[in-house]
Amino acid sequence: MNATLKAIIILVVALTIKYARCKSNLRNQLTSTQGPAQDSSSFFQIRLPEISIPPISTNLGNYKDYEGGRNGGGWDNGKVELSSYSFVPSLLNAVYLFSALCFILCLTGLNNHKTSKRGNVLGFIGIVAAIVVTFSQVGFGFRYELFFIIVIPAISIGLFIAHHVSMVQMPQLVALFHSFVGLAALFVGFSKYHSEYFESYEMSTIHLVELYLGTFIGAITFIGSLVAAGKLSGTLDSKSLNLKIKKVINMVCIIIIIILGYYFVQLKSIYLKTLFLYVSFLVDSFLGFHLVASIGAADMPVVISALNSYSGFATAISGFLLHNNLLIISGSLIGSSGAILSYIMCIGMNRDIFNIILGGWDDYDELGGGSLQQAEANKRVNSTTHKYVAENLINARNVVIVPGYGTAVSKCQRELAEICIILKSRNVQVNFAIHPVAGRMPGHLNVLLAEANVPYNIVKEMNEINSSIDKADIVLVVGANDIVNPSSLDPSSKIYGMPIIEVWKSKQVIILKRSLNTGYSAIDNPLFYFANSYMLFGDAKHSTNQILTILSDYTSHKYPDVSLSDAHLDDEKAEVRSLCFLSEDSSASIREDLEALAEQYPKARRVIGLVKEDTGGTQKGEAKNGDEKGENTKEGAEAESSTPRSADVNLSIVPITPKFVPKLKKMGFRILVEKDIGTKIMIEDEEYVNYGAEITSKEDVLRQSNIILKVDPPSEKFIVEVPNNTVLISYLWPSINKELLQIAVQNKEKNNITYMAIDEVPRSTRAQKIDIRSSMSNLQGYRAVIEAFFMLPMFSKSSTTAAGTIHPAKVFVIGAGVAGLQAIITAKSMGSIVYSHDSKASTEEEVKSCGGIFIKIPSSTYREKNELAKDEEKMREDFLNIQSKIFKRVISKCDILICSASVPGKASPKLVTTEMIKLMKRGSVAVDLCTEFGDKQSGWGGNIQCSQSNKNIIINGVHVLGRDKIERNMPLQASDLFSMNMINLLDEMGGGLQFTVDTNNDIVKALVVVKDGKILYSPDRSMDKLVKSESVFLTDQSEDNQLVSKKTIKYPTGTRITEKFIESDLLFYISLICALMVTLLTGTIFSQSDLHHLFLFTLSIIVGYFCVWSVTPSLHTPLMSVTNALSGVIIIGSMIEYGSGFKSLSSVLSMIATFLSAVNLSGGFYVTKRMLDMFIK
């Protein structure tokens, strides 16, 4: 490296010495009014191009009278302007070609993260090469000292700004650099206008138009970029300048600019030309201010991209004016890049690009807010806490984080990255979802996440995440609003059709936001009122910090009770230790340990009472119904078991097992236990005493307890015995025990009893640790398979013997809920072939993941949403007929049938008739897990018509096992799971120290059915929860959302425009005719040199189009910064206008342009390097 540097220095010194003696002579030639000097130096001689110098006239106003102008043979005869001439023209063109290729490769390098850094380096090399070769042009005048005096401070300033700017301020920086390019292009145009060549030669109409158009775009870019930077930084109001006559103002300004341009081109007086040029500059500046000020902050991504495009086209026009091919090529690449990005942003925001550019989209007062958000406005918002969010995140399996502009404003990207690290360390799948217009410039949030060291392979684009977001347990929305607003699906909303991240399809959405205020679109967000959405109000930085603190505490085991699986493992370890060291003193040592632990318990603030189940009441009634039903079904039975097995079915479990008593005492509870509560399941009272509970009579338990825990619903007698000021927690099934609720509120003197139904736990991620139904369903599915194979007289798996091959048993599971999936897993583990069916198509993947074969039932006609109501009954009947035929075919070939299709609190679906059971082979087994809620009045046991509650019967040689609570055949395991759910519920309610029935808590609110003497339960509320649950044979509302979401606009592809062009024959022929007319017009008006430039311009735009479409969206912000840096190539346009140094206004303006361009170049490339270095895989 040092050798290369020395070689370059020696080469530069040699060239400087070689040409030093000719500089003075050359400058004399350039300043001579008689043309180039005829004598030459003996050391160095240059043959200058043939230039026709017009005679000097004191009447500058009549300078066009000279015939050597554009139309008289001046520049039209292939004669080159002196300042554009190079001493080494071939080398100049070769290096310019090299630089152009570097610029193209710079853009294509951003196709992926691996080549992006090389692309940035190539862009920098191309710029440096272009600057070095520009030293050879006559217009530069060998003014090296002046150039480096200007450039070195400018580079230092640019590097300083780019090094210290934060990624949050990146949009402001890009807008500021755009203004530098616009101002540099403006000064280059003014410099050309005030040059001595313009005053000495006639400039053609084309070049005058180019100069005027260049100053117009340069002024718009300069002022517009300053306004955009002010809006983004907060210096200016981010709201749009909503003047009622703003469109009129824009039209008037454009008309004035056109009139001034016409006279600027046509008038011969240089004074009038100058006057019109600078007046138009003022009008351009006002128009640039008004256009951008009239655009709201919601459209800033489009504005930034459009300004990027303006800066590129300003550079290209400067290239036309200066006859510089590289400026034309680079300006075209940059202009097409900005235009395409603007188009992408408009598609992503469902905006009209022309309306945004003209500042006319966001007329909020004229547009309605849409019916959807108005309908949702009166709904209640579910607010939550930091602890709730942390607990759900750490217990989730799949988390998606959706950052918005609020993430950038609050600078909480590092907290999100640390949360991601903690979750991934606990094997939680974490992805970030980025909307195309999230932030205030394309790809802004990708850069912020990269700055926080978030791997780019877990940062997903909108289309990629939408296809899998329904699998997410939690979506964490941080500071986003419009990009997750479901109003885009409402045709009456003004953002209808805007592509959004469909976060509501996940199981739960947690939104971190300061308030319920609208986003930049001024549209209310119905997502805030969805049942599965929870709002965490406050600053995102503070909220994420709090969540991170809680997560860190969990991972450092400061809260060991959070994860029940960990607690269970600890218990198992303790049991193993006790088994390994059994001795005579083992029980004494355990007792001593418990006594030592008791000294650490806090003082009890609440008393929990555990009571046995009633021996009559509800359960007796159920048995009676079962007996009656058994008599009705006996007619169709070939034979019934001579000895009913109902006596062998255990119906008892305890609400809290002894080993969990210490946990309750640690929470601040005193535990009273009814005598002999666990005798039936081999739990002795002494065990409760050993763990710190107190054994007493039922009367004492009821009298002293604040909280009563039991399992089954209370009988009428028990309700009468419950004292006032008590909380009763048990199964209640309020939808079928409405009379029980009425009895509970009859006694007005006991109006302070709260009844909580644990069967009403909402199916949300947060409530999973309390969901007793899921816990029991797991046991039900497992036990059903075990009992079925116990009765089945054949192998469960295939086996090869000397006598031949034994085929595996075939199992058909109806209902793919929690119990059904567990049954599939268990049967599959035993080697069986498992078939399954569920009415929800979404369960197909779950069935397949468990190893089952999903049975589909054609139901498109039945499920069509837009059919008339009068046809629904017929469609339902047709669907059931198809279902029945398929069930008959499958059941007849299966050895085991397990039915688990239930809707808690509702009658079990009637699925398998007695006729279907008779089709099964003799010795086969059918297990009905849903007899508890069977429609016994219609003669149905549960899902199976002939099943009986807790009895084993035989129909045509087929064993039919009816089970109400099959999990209770595993009483100790069921009691442990029930205990863990109860402990989690009590912890959710504040523990013994802060116990309260808080109806603002969404989980507690769902469980409370009676409070303060009033029935709070409503069937509608229950149905809402069931729709969200995993219960089978109920249509999920999310399916409707999925149907609607298919109408959303997809993220655009590069063929969007060409597809429209190809589809329309009329548009094709109109475009073809227009192209021919333009071709003829340009061939008539333009010179050969101008056509050459136009050819380069057109091809460069096409190349830029394909280069930019291939750029990955996550690198859109680096793309904008690097194209902004490339637009600094305008520096070579300023260099060839140095002329006579400080002696003319033209030279001074070109030097200022050099300074601005150098700041833009150095800052742009360096900040791009900073961003690309942040992206890690």
Automatic annotation (TrEMBL):
Reactions accelerated catalytically: NAD(+) + NADPH + H(+)(in) = NADH + NADP(+) + H(+)(out)
NCBIfam families recorded: PRK09424.1
GO terms for MF: NADP binding; proton-translocating NAD(P)+ transhydrogenase activity
Biased composition (Basic and acidic residues): 612-637
Cited Gene3D superfamilies: NAD(P)-binding Rossmann-like Domain, TPP-binding domain
Bilayer disposition of the protein: Multi-pass membrane protein
Span of domain Alanine dehydrogenase/pyridine nucleotide transhydrogenase NAD(H)-binding: 789-962
Gene Ontology cellular component list: mitochondrial inner membrane; plasma membrane
Signal sequence extent: 1-22
Oxidoreductase recorded as keyword: no
Residues that span the membrane, as ranges: 91-110, 122-140, 146-166, 173-191, 211-228, 248-265, 327-346, 1066-1086, 1092-1112, 1148-1167
Record InterPro entries: AlaDH/PNT_N, AlaDH/PNT_NAD(H)-bd, DHS-like_NAD/FAD-binding_dom, NAD(P)-bd_dom_sf, NADP_transhyd_a_C, PNTB-like
Boundaries of every Alanine dehydrogenase/pyridine nucleotide transhydrogenase N-terminal domain copy: 642-780
Naturally occurring in which organism (per UniProt): Plasmodium inui San Antonio 1
Region called Disordered, residue ranges: 612-646
Name the UniProt record assigns to this protein: proton-translocating NAD(P)(+) transhydrogenase
Compartment(s) where it occurs, according to its Swiss-Prot or TrEMBL record: Cell inner membrane
Assigned keywords, A-Z: Cell inner membrane, Cell membrane, Membrane, NAD, NADP, Nucleotide-binding, Signal, Translocase, Transmembrane, Transmembrane helix
Top EC group: translocase
Pfam families from the UniProt entry: AlaDh_PNT_C (PF01262), AlaDh_PNT_N (PF05222), PNTB (PF02233), PNTB_4TM (PF12769)
One annotated GO biological process: NADPH regeneration
EC number, UniProt record: 7.1.1.1
